[in-house]
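This part of the workshop introduces the protein records we will be handling. An example says more than a description, so a record of this kind follows.
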Amino acid sequence: MADALFVVLRKVALSLGEGVLERIGTELAEVAPILTDFEHSMKQIEGELSILKAFIDQVSTHKDGDKAFDAWLDQVRDVALEVEDIIDEYAYLTAQAPDTSSFFKRKFHQIKNFAAWQKFPSQVSQVEARIQRLTEMRNRYGISLGELDKSNKLQQHNQFSMSDFAYLTDNSEIVGNTDEIARLTHWLLEEKQDRTLIAIFGMGGLGKTTITSSVYKNQKIRRNFDCRAWVTLSQTYQAEELLREIINQLIDQRSSMASGLMTMNRMRLIEVIQSYLQDKKYMIVLDDVWDKDAWLFLNYAFVRNNCGSKVLITTRQKDVSSLATGSYVIEMKTLNYAESWELFCKKAFCASKDNICPDNLISWANKIVTKCQGLPLAIVTIGSILSYRELEEQVWKFFYDQLSWHIANNPELNWISSVLNLSLNNLPSYLRSCFLYCSLFPEDYKIKRKLISKLWIAEGLVEERGDGTTMEEVAECYLMELTQRSLLQVTEKNACGRARTFLMHDLVREVTLILAKKEKFGMAYGNGGTAQVAHEARRLSIQRGAKSLNSLASSQLRSFILFDTEVPSSWIYDVSSSFRLLRVLCLRFANIEQVPCVVTELYNLRYMDLSHTKVKKIPASFSKLVNLQVLDLRFSYVDELPLEITMLTNLRHLHVFVVHDVQQRSLNCFGSTKFLGNICHLKNLQALYTVSANKHLVLQLENLTQMRGLGIMKVQQSYIAELWNSLTMMPNLSRLLLFASDMDEILNLKMLRALPNLKLLWLAGKLDGGMVPSLFSKFEKITQLKMDWSGLNEDPISSLSHMLNLVNLCLVRAYDGQQLTFCAGWFPKLITLQLIDMEHLDLIEIEDGTLMNLHTLELTGLRNLKAVPEGIKYLRTLDQMFLTDMPNEFIERLLGSDKHIVQHIPDIHNFGSSDSQAANNFISSEYLAKKYGAGAINYSPAE
């Protein structure tokens, strides 16, 4: 609701606090009075908007269904967007300060932009007048805080009725969750003297209340306790009312009323509960708990009397579930497809015998169930509505095609959006804006942590916290908070255990998209419903059917993200001509060979993604993009960066490389890019992948003290000492890729001091003395290590065994010896082991007790390894094995006499030497999916 205002207010502060006016110079003296008035007026508007924002923050989430308030708020948003346009236009014009090197250019810019400057006073006056009218309108129609109590009670009543519905569900209607119900039952019946606090958490609509009520109503369980109470807290509970409700359920209501319960304060009410429960074995359910604060006083009320009492909490918040005693936590999951289908048929075909779906509806019923993605609330609600629809294919098809509309507008489906909206309305404004942005990705898209963080930062949605904390780290905190609130699901973690990808439930995405469009935050195009984008859309993702889009009516876009890769380049060049104030431009996988001309005029641009395109050259005019933070050129054809790139002093992430060898078996598997300018100007750079080394470059690197990730190619011995010195000036360096210039070049690590925060190290090239450097013993935080063409003469495994945090280990032509030995106790955290192209290796010895957590083993090109290593049978956690270009004798034994060694491995892939393309395709898909998320596969042409 207040998200647009939140972003605008920050932007106002930044625009007026950066001294932009002073930077314009004397060449714009004619407009100085205008700018002074503009600054004064904008500060006044900032004050007005601050008050409006405070008001909206207080009442917007409690005003559902108030049409007058919604209409008024819509106009407030329009004003906020107007202010944003004025500010961004201001930034756009000031960025075009005239080139003082040319008299004619100075005069041209003055004439060209003078009219635009002159518009500001009238625009600001109009905004001021609109704000004044909004204030008057609010008073005229009584849209005030005085309505808060009434609307709160209304919402609380609606919330209780939903909880009551779940509570009253008959056990015969419950499908799935048998393990959860059995665990709950066991915990409630177990003989344990201490009071036990049990938590059940998960996103809204998963059935937390339903399964809790099933055990709460179980007669065997009820008889096990002296007294019971069930209360729903919701977001708007009143402490005194909550305590009175508990007392009324525990104690005879007439006696509690007679004792003056209604006049007692909170402390007295707690004492009443304490006194009553002092010698009783009780069971109390606290349904729908939103924060820990509620437990602070309830903890005192529910006495610890060593009678074996139980307290059950249901919550959407993971931090609330942490209140539970020890491991007494159940995380609810969505139903699997079979369970979803059974539940849907129970509801949709309740009138038919055995709840069987008619043959003519199976296809559409399948699509509807799939859309629900195992969310019981959606399955039950949609199934119940369809139970009284005609059993005609056309009727069900029409319902499915209009499902998004039904969720937004059909009162019968209001429960779905209401339950899911509760989580959204509970978000603070900074998180809400970020979450709305997530809805712009396609269905089932695995959202990469690094990608979404950069997009949020580019859009100004992430706050600066200071104290050496980067905005990327703050964005990661936002993501984790969204997962704690059960709004995003972590689908993959990296080697360090950090979340790598996130998923948004389809129906949560539908509800969020509806809100994003309603609040003019953004929209996703591609569902085939319209050929026009709403003028108000500030952020647009185009997922399919871009060619049917007639035009972009709005030139006010801030984000343009293209997922549709089938559109011709001419369409992209045409549509980009309407961009002006863009901050994010993502053309990943687009069919273009050159950068659209308009790009270099986008002075507000922060994020530019041209990865996986056919772009070959970055124009020198990129120097105009002074606000650019991210430039992503991965898998493009760019092999040289112009000198002018060094003028982009706000650049934080620069990615430019091509993968020539997806299997990464060659020394030059990555293409290297020439960097012509003086890189020391890019002092804000945090990630740089990958550039060609030279003596000047490696000397300049010492100035990049913010660097977190660096990939550097074609390193030579003649300047390696300077490189090591520069690396030690990067205290936060955690990822380092370092490639020698050729197979004969020696990488001497003796002069390199320890890099204390290094977690990923990829060394490609001969190591001095053919031994693992002694420095490796100081790399305590390393989780991923890859060594290529190292020329090692001694078994490196023992020298690496001290790396207790190692998760991924890959050796490519690293060792010239015959035997590798893995001793018991070594590599306790290793998950992936890759042994590639070590032509003399004929024995791999694996003791019982080593590699205790290994899940993936890859053996490639080990042409002298004839027998399957006997010790693989000890790797009990191994669930994937990849074999590429292995000797025929090895494969024959694998399938024959040595089959018993690998019989416990469920997934074995074998690619022979003639299957190199199949191996490339398989590994390429895995690589792209891991690096870029499912979208890299689902939304890209075959590569």
